[in-house]
């Protein structure tokens, strides 16, 4: 599904975040130490190679809601934006912290002049955020941030499963009036 607001196209696809060669940056569902891990972080670090952890070391630790940028190393993307999502039920208020991740990642990409960013569904795996609630926060935040973006023209949500894609499509159509 696709919607365009203020010159920014927001799209949802099913796939793997490490296989988005047409995006200048991909977003990592990071841990505070910016080390490799399970899920998205494991997949990104595996493809990027050990140079990514090396570059991350002086940037850690990060706080929930924060975003930092590195190079993509052996990934097909020039940049990785590392976000620490909230742990559901622990880091509060969850919705504010999850929204901060999307807002801060988009602002960082825009400041660096990037045109395209791909996000996974932050916090919805190991961190336990329910998919429907997380999809609503993610889409709402991206839609709200579009008026302030000068360089970013494409925001892609890359969802692992069919139901995850459906949750994001539902949120996008409800929020954008599609
Ligand atoms: N591409 C797209 N989505 C994926 C991929 C992939 N390759 N792999 C998993 N997902 P998670 P979190 C989905 O756990 O909840 C890590 O161990 C997955 O199905 O990666 O923010 C870190 O080290 C889920 O819907 O991120 C942290 O400690 C979503 O991506 C912690 O987990 C996010 O799942 C971060 O937890």
Please describe what this structure looks like.
The protein is an alpha/beta fold and 178 residues long. It has a single domain (2-176), classed as 3-Layer(aba) Sandwich (Leucine Aminopeptidase, subunit E, domain 1). The protein is 37% helix and 20% strand. It contains 5 helices and 7 strands, in the order E-E-E-H-H-E-E-H-E-H-E-H. It has a 7-stranded mixed β-sheet, sandwiched between helices. Strand 4 and strand 5 form a beta hairpin. Helix 3 (94-111) crosses helix 4. The longest helix has 18 residues, at 94-111. The chain is globular. The mean pLDDT is 98. Ligand AR6 is lined by residues 16-18, 29, 31, 37-41, 43, 85, 120-127, 158, 160, 164. Ligand AR6 binds next to helix 1.
**Total beta-strand segments:** 7
What is the overall pLDDT average?
Answer: 98
SSE arrangement, N to C: EEEHHEEHEHEH
The top-level CATH class is Alpha Beta
CATH-defined architecture: 3-Layer(aba) Sandwich
Distance between the termini: 10 Å
Unreliable segments of 5+ consecutive residues = none
Q: How many individual helices?
A: 5
Strand content: 15-25%
CATH superfamily: Leucine Aminopeptidase, subunit E, domain 1
Rounded to the nearest angstrom, the radius of gyration is: 15 Å
What small molecules accompany the polymer chains?
ligand AR6
In what order do the strands lie side by side in the largest sheet? Answer: 1-2-7-6-3-5-4
Structural class: alpha/beta
Any idea of the CATH topology?
Leucine Aminopeptidase, subunit E, domain 1
Count of the separate structural domains: 1
Assembly annotation: single chain
Largest sheet properties: 7 strands, mixed
Helix content: 25-40%
- Morphology: globular
